[in-house]
Amino acid sequence: MFKVKYFEIIRTTAVILIALAIAFLIISLVSDHPVKTIGIFLLEPLNSKAHIGNVIEMAIPLMFTGLAVSLLFRANMFNLGAEGIFYFSGVVTSVLAIHLTLSGSLHPVVAILAGSIVGALLSAIPGILKAKWNANELVTSLMFNNILFGIGLYLLNYHLRDAKAFANVSYKFEKTAQLSKIFQGTRIHTGLIIVLVLIVAAHLFLYKTKWGYELRMTGVNREFARYSGMKTAKVIILVHLIAGFIAGMGGSVEVLGMYNRFQWTSLPGYGLDGALVAMLAKNNPLSVIASALFLAYIRIGADLMARLSDVPSEMISIIQAVIILLISAEQFLKFWKNRMLLKEAKNA
Amino acid sequence: MQTALLEMRGITKVYPNGVVANKDVHFSLREGEIHAIAGENGAGKSTLMKIMFGMEEPSDGEIVIKGEKVKLQSPQDAIDRGIGMVHQHFMLVPSFTVAENMVLGMEPRKGVGINYAEAVRMTEETARKYNLAVNPKAKVEDLTVGMKQKVEILKALLRGAKILILDEPTAVLTPQETEELFRELKQLREQGHTIVFISHKLKEVKAICDRITIMRGGGSEGVFETRDVSEQEISRLMVGRDVVLKYDKDQMAYGKPVLTVDQLEVNDPQGKALLSKISFSVRQGQIVGIAGVEGNGQTQLIEALTGGLHGVSSSGTVQVNGTDIREADILGIRKLGVSYIPEDRMRQGSAGEASISDNLISTRYRSKDMNKGVFLNGSRIASLAASLVEEFRVRCSGPAQPIGMLSGGNMQKVVVARECSTGPQLLIAEQPTRGVDIGAAQFIHQKLLELRSENCAVLLVSADLNEILEISDTLLVMYEGQIVAYFEEPSKVSEEELGLYMLGINRQDERQTGRAINHV
C-alpha cells in the first residue's frame, strides 16, 4: 500500500501543475512578452516584502472560510453558507466598530465575538433544518447567502452609509476597533495569529477529542454513527455552529483588519473560495494553511500581472476553474492508480 | 477433451480501494454442465461472476467465449452473448406483475403503449417451455421468495441465456424450496443449458454439480469432478485446513432473564400488524436462536430491541434487566449493557473510510478510560485497538488501515470485536456470519460461546440453519410476525422439520410457544 497512500498528494500536485501549464499556454497566446509575463506571475508576488505581505493578507480570510468549510465537508455537509455569513458578520462587526465606544483592546474583541456569534446562530438554521427535517443543506445555505446579502446591503444603504463619502461606504470605524498591524511595511494584522490558533485548535478538536470523533464518524457514515449511539442530529447542528462561528469571525476580522469603513457592495467571494481551499486541503485543518497561501499567491500573482503586463487578471479564474474541475473529477488519473494497484497486488 | 464453452484466463481484479478480489484466476465452463464455484465468502466468487456478467471490468486477463476473445463492458454485452445472471438479491420491481417484470427493458409494444397481452403470452410460453410454473398476472410483491427466484430465472431465459449464473441461490430458500430449485436446474441442464452455481454449502454442491472450481483468497484452488472429491476434501481446499462444524458446548445453568419481551405488538403506520403477541426471554448464559425465512418479522423484532420503537405505535413490554426500553433511544439501550451486531456491516456496522481503530471505539469513546481531560486518550485507544486486532485475528496492515479495505470476514471480525469486548449483558447478533468465510464464521461462533460462558445473554437471529441449530440453546421460529415454534434442544431438530415451521405449514399451540418466556 506504500505508493497508493501518496496517490491523493500526487494527484493534487498534478492537478495544480496542469492548471499552471494551461495558464502559461494562455499567457503565451495572449501576451506580447510571454516569458516576461510568466515571470511576473510567478516571481513578483515573492519579490518584495509588500508583495509577500499582500499574499498573506489575502490568505487570512481564505484560511477562515477554508477552515469553516473543511469542518462542514468533514461532516459530509455540503454547505456553502460561509459566503453569506462572512459578509453579514462583517456588517454586524462594522455596526459595533462604528457605534460602540470601548477602550483599547476590548473594542475589537467585543466586535469580533459579536460577529462570530451571529455567524454561528445564522449557520445553525440550515443545520437544524438538515438535522430535523433533512432539508438539503446546499440549497438552504445558498438561499441564505442571498438573504443575508440583501439584509446586509439594506443596513449599509439605510443605516450605516456615510453621506459625506463619495462611495457607497459606511461611516468610519472607531480607531480603537481596528486590528493592529504586526509586520512593518505590510498590512498583515493580528487576524493572522487568530486564524492560526483557530486552525491548530480545530485540528486538535477534530482528531483528538470525542466531539471531533463524533463529527468524523457522522461524516463518514451517519447510519453507523447513529447505530453506535451518537446523536447525529446534535453533531450536525454543532458542526454548523462551529463553522458559522469561524466564518463569521473571518468576516469580522477581515473588516477590522483591512479597512476603516465597511465597503462591500457585493458578496466578496471568500466563502466560495473557502470551498476551493477546503477541497485542495482535503478537508484537513492544518493543510488549509498551505492551500490558502497557494490560492492567495496565484491571485496576487494575477493582480500584479494585470498591473505590470498586458494580460488581465481574469486569467486566474481559468486556473481556478481547471483546478476545481480536475480535483472534483474523481476519475482523473484513476487509470494510473489502477495500474499502480495492480502492480502492487502482483508483487504482494 | 471437450472444448470450453467459456473460458476466463488469468483474471485479476483490484478494486480502487486496493482490495484484490481476484488474483490470476482461471475458469473454464463446458457446455451442458452444472459447474459449482465454491469458496468461503470473500474468496472472490462474486467478483469473478460479476466480471463474467460484464458488471465489472477485470484489471487484467481475458475472457474467451466459444474460442472468441470478448470484452464484456456491460451486462447487455453478456446478455447478447447468452449469459444470464440471477442475483442473490433479486432485481425485480415489486409493484409490477410477473409478466411486466419479465419483459422489462424489452417490452412488446402496441402503438405507444405496452402490449400487456403479448407480455403475458411470452411469459406463459417461456414458462411452459422450461416447465417452470408461474402466474404471469400475479404481483411480484405477493410472491414467495422461491417464486421470485423462478421469475428471475425465467427472465434470464427469456433473454436467450444459454449460460445461467446463480449467485448463492439457496441462501434465501427453505429446504423444500431448495429441492424444487434443484429439480428445475437439472431439467434445464437436460435442455442443454449450462449453469454456474455459486455456493459455499458443500452438501448442495455435492448434490447437484458436475464439476467444481474451488476458490480461496481470490485465487483458484483448482477444478475437480464433483464425484471425485469428498465434502471433507472440498472444505479443506476452501479453508486451507480441516473444519469441524461441531462445537463443544458445556451445559450452562441459566441465570436470571436479561431480556424479557412480553406480548409485544407492533403495527406499521397503516395499522398492519408487523409483530403480534411476541413473548420470550433470554437468560444469562443462554443463547436463544430465532429462525425463520427472511421477512417474517425478524427485522422488526430486532429494531424493537435496538431503539426502533421510539415514536412507533406498539404495546406490550420489552425489558432489559427490568428496565423498559420501548421508549429508550439507542444510547440509552447501549448504556444498559446491550451490544448489537447488525445484519449489514457496510451500512450500519462500520464506517468504511475510517480506520479500524476508529471503528473499534465507536461504542465506548465516551467512557472515562478512553478520555484524558477534554482529549481522547490516544495511547489507551492505540493499545486497545492493537490488542483487539490481535485477539480477534483481524488480518490487516495495522489498526490505522481503513476498515473498508478489509475483506468481508475481517471487517465482520472488527464489528464482533467491538460489540463483544465491552462486557455486554445482552448481545443481539443478527446474521453474524453472513457473507464471511468459514474460518471467520467459526471464530465468531466461538466468541459467541465464550460470551455465553461469561454469563452474557445472547439473542441470535440467523437464516443459516446449520449455524442456528448448532449454536442455540433454545430455538424460536418466526412466521408472519409471530412465534410459531419453540424448541428446547435445537440440535435434535432436523432441518426438514424446521422448514415446515418456517413455511407456516406446521405451528405449535400457545401452550408450547408460551414456554419461551421465563417470568421472573
UniProtKB/TrEMBL annotation, chain A:
<dbReference type="GO" id="GO:0005886">
    <property type="term" value="C:plasma membrane"/>
</dbReference>
<dbReference type="InterPro" id="IPR001851">
    <property type="entry name" value="ABC_transp_permease"/>
</dbReference>
<keyword id="KW-0812">Transmembrane</keyword>
<feature type="transmembrane region" description="Helical">
    <location>
        <begin position="51"/>
        <end position="73"/>
    </location>
</feature>
<feature type="transmembrane region" description="Helical">
    <location>
        <begin position="12"/>
        <end position="31"/>
    </location>
</feature>
<feature type="transmembrane region" description="Helical">
    <location>
        <begin position="235"/>
        <end position="256"/>
    </location>
</feature>
<dbReference type="GO" id="GO:0022857">
    <property type="term" value="F:transmembrane transporter activity"/>
</dbReference>
<dbReference type="Pfam" id="PF02653">
    <property type="entry name" value="BPD_transp_2"/>
</dbReference>
<keyword id="KW-1003">Cell membrane</keyword>
<keyword id="KW-0472">Membrane</keyword>
<keyword id="KW-1133">Transmembrane helix</keyword>
<feature type="transmembrane region" description="Helical">
    <location>
        <begin position="315"/>
        <end position="333"/>
    </location>
</feature>
<feature type="transmembrane region" description="Helical">
    <location>
        <begin position="188"/>
        <end position="207"/>
    </location>
</feature>
<feature type="transmembrane region" description="Helical">
    <location>
        <begin position="108"/>
        <end position="129"/>
    </location>
</feature>
<feature type="transmembrane region" description="Helical">
    <location>
        <begin position="85"/>
        <end position="102"/>
    </location>
</feature>
<protein>
    <submittedName>
        <fullName>ABC transporter permease</fullName>
    </submittedName>
</protein>
<feature type="transmembrane region" description="Helical">
    <location>
        <begin position="138"/>
        <end position="156"/>
    </location>
</feature>
UniProtKB/TrEMBL annotation, chain B:
<feature type="domain" description="ABC transporter">
    <location>
        <begin position="259"/>
        <end position="505"/>
    </location>
</feature>
<keyword id="KW-0547">Nucleotide-binding</keyword>
<keyword id="KW-1003">Cell membrane</keyword>
<dbReference type="InterPro" id="IPR050107">
    <property type="entry name" value="ABC_carbohydrate_import_ATPase"/>
</dbReference>
<keyword id="KW-0677">Repeat</keyword>
<dbReference type="InterPro" id="IPR027417">
    <property type="entry name" value="P-loop_NTPase"/>
</dbReference>
<dbReference type="InterPro" id="IPR003439">
    <property type="entry name" value="ABC_transporter-like_ATP-bd"/>
</dbReference>
<keyword id="KW-1278">Translocase</keyword>
<feature type="domain" description="ABC transporter">
    <location>
        <begin position="6"/>
        <end position="242"/>
    </location>
</feature>
<dbReference type="GO" id="GO:0005886">
    <property type="term" value="C:plasma membrane"/>
</dbReference>
<keyword id="KW-0813">Transport</keyword>
<keyword id="KW-0472">Membrane</keyword>
<dbReference type="GO" id="GO:0016887">
    <property type="term" value="F:ATP hydrolysis activity"/>
</dbReference>
<dbReference type="Pfam" id="PF00005">
    <property type="entry name" value="ABC_tran"/>
</dbReference>
<dbReference type="GO" id="GO:0005524">
    <property type="term" value="F:ATP binding"/>
</dbReference>
<protein>
    <submittedName>
        <fullName>Heme ABC transporter ATP-binding protein</fullName>
    </submittedName>
</protein>
<keyword id="KW-0067">ATP-binding</keyword>
<dbReference type="InterPro" id="IPR003593">
    <property type="entry name" value="AAA+_ATPase"/>
</dbReference>
